[in-house]
Design a protein that fits this description.
The complex is a heterodimer of chains A (283) and B (103). Chain A contains 10 helices and 7 strands. Chain A has 283 residues and is mostly helical. In chain A, helix 4 crosses helix 6 and helix 7 crosses helix 10. Chain B is mainly α and 103 residues long. Chain B has one domain. In chain B, helix 2 runs antiparallel to helix 3, helix 2 runs parallel beside helix 4 and helix 3 packs antiparallel against helix 4. Chain B is flat, with a radius of gyration of 20 Å. Classes of the chains: A mainly alpha (283), B mainly alpha (103). Chain B: It comes from Afipia carboxidovorans (strain ATCC 49405 / DSM 1227 / KCTC 32145 / OM5) (Oligotropha carboxidovorans). Chain B: Keywords: Signal.
């Protein structure tokens, strides 16, 4: 009798392990999306869903008041003007950015990044901007700031309020692979301080790290590019990712490395349905 | 008498260690630096170099250029240890990251 009971218990434990493993392997972008969303809405029940795109301002009342006051004269305004000018200025061959993008580049920020079935890689807006320049015989921009931040700021501004709409083509396993690699990058610890992206933006949003209030991972890219007081200027998603790596004492990868583009793909998919709020400003 | 002998022997030992520690040469530095560089290169292939490793390597090179091979070798050894730690971190994290995923 006792032996039978022990055997049953052992079998139950074994089955439990198998079920747990099956849960891990059964992870799909759709399941991840639901779990990610539930995590944040349960952790911060008082924060309206669309407010997560406002990062630390959705977490801290004092910061929010300062931000609202700052928005009367937003620090990214100069970049918007410059970006519009660059966007409309013809290249040497007479073409403009409008010739490279769907809908002439207006109101399309929410669709980036996307997975290109021809090249089997993630195409971010920043990459697409430089591809457009190179295709038209122009010198590509620095990925981190200045002209790149200005053009993407203008493109984001024309898309404000539109919900993120990132697609993972189910018929292309390479797209799911890119998504999974982005997820791995997000959760994998690195740098001498042994931090992952999730260490700050999943485990501790709303908490302070030194003087900064950490932003939630949900909607963290919707306000990009941003004017950051710490930087004293505008910065792109590339700048954000590389500076995060440096802060944990890791050597940053090259801007727009496949790892960063996959990470952007993962985070943007998690933000599906949340509005574009860029360009933004952060402390 | 025994105490005095012990003190003399101890002092002699300490002196030997100190002399041995101050005996780093260009050759010992080069060997230590090559090992550190190789480990850091491997960390780079794993896409996880640490800024502190790079700083230690730079410091080692600078000290060697100034002829201070004791400091240079120490820094090179430190760089190797840091690079090896970053490699170990990557190997560990490749297995552990799924545990952190929100479910």
């Amino acid at each position: 009798m006792m032996r039978g009971l022990a055997l049953l218990m052992a079998l139950a434990m074994l089955a439990g392990t198998q079920i747990a493993r099956a849960e891990v392997t059964a992870s799909t972008p759709e399941n991840d999306f639901k779990a990610f969303r539930n995590f944040f809405t349960n952790k911060f029940p008082k924060v309206p869903l669309n407010d997560f795109v406002n990062g630390p301002y959705s977490m801290d009342e004092g910061l929010r008041k300062q931000w609202i006051a700052k928005e009367d004269f937003p620090p990214y305004d100069f970049a918007l003007d410059h970006g519009k000018e660059l966007f409309e200025k013809p290249f040497k061959n007479g073409k403009t950015f409008a010739d490279c993008f769907p809908n002439k580049g207006i109101g399309i920020r929410q669709n980036y990044p996307y997975f290109d079935d021809k090249t089997n890689e993630v195409i971010t807006l920043e990459l697409a901007v430089n591809q457009c320049l190179e295709k038209n015989g122009e010198k590509p921009y620095n990925y981190m700031k200045d002209d790149m931040a200005a053009v993407t700021a203008y493109m984001a501004f024309t898309s404000r309020g539109k919900p993120f709409d990132i697609k993972i083509p189910k018929d292309n396993p390479k797209a799911v692979e890119a998504y999974e690699k982005g997820k791995q990058y997000f959760y994998q610890r690195r740098g001498q301080l042994n931090f992952s992206c999730a260490s700050c933006h999943i485990q501790a949003p709303g908490e302070r790290i030194r003087a900064e209030v950490l932003a939630p991972a949900l909607g963290i890219l919707n306000a990009m590019p941003i004017y950051r007081s710490e930087w004293g200027g505008m910065g792109t998603i590339s700048r954000r990712f590389t500076s995060c790596n440096s802060q944990v004492r890791g050597v940053p990868l090259e801007p727009q490395a496949p790892e960063y583009r996959n990470l952007e793909y993962y985070l943007s998919y998690m933000a599906n349905g949340l509005p574009v709020s860029g360009p933004g400003s952060r402390p | 008498m025994r105490i005095i002998t012990s003190i003399i022997v101890g002092a002699a030992l300490l002196l030997t260690v100190a002399v041995a520690q101050a005996a780093e040469t260009a050759e010992t530095f080069n060997a230590a630096y090559a090992k550190a560089e190789a480990a850091n290169k491997k960390a780079g292939e794993l896409r996880n170099q640490w800024t502190t490793t790079v700083a230690a390597l730079k410091g080692a090179k600078k000290a060697a250029d100034e002829g201070n091979f004791d400091a240079a070798t120490n820094l090179a050894k430190r760089a190797e240890a840091l690079a090896n730690a970053s490699i170990a971190q990557t190997e560990r994290e490749v297995k552990l990251w799924p545990d952190a995923v929100v479910r």
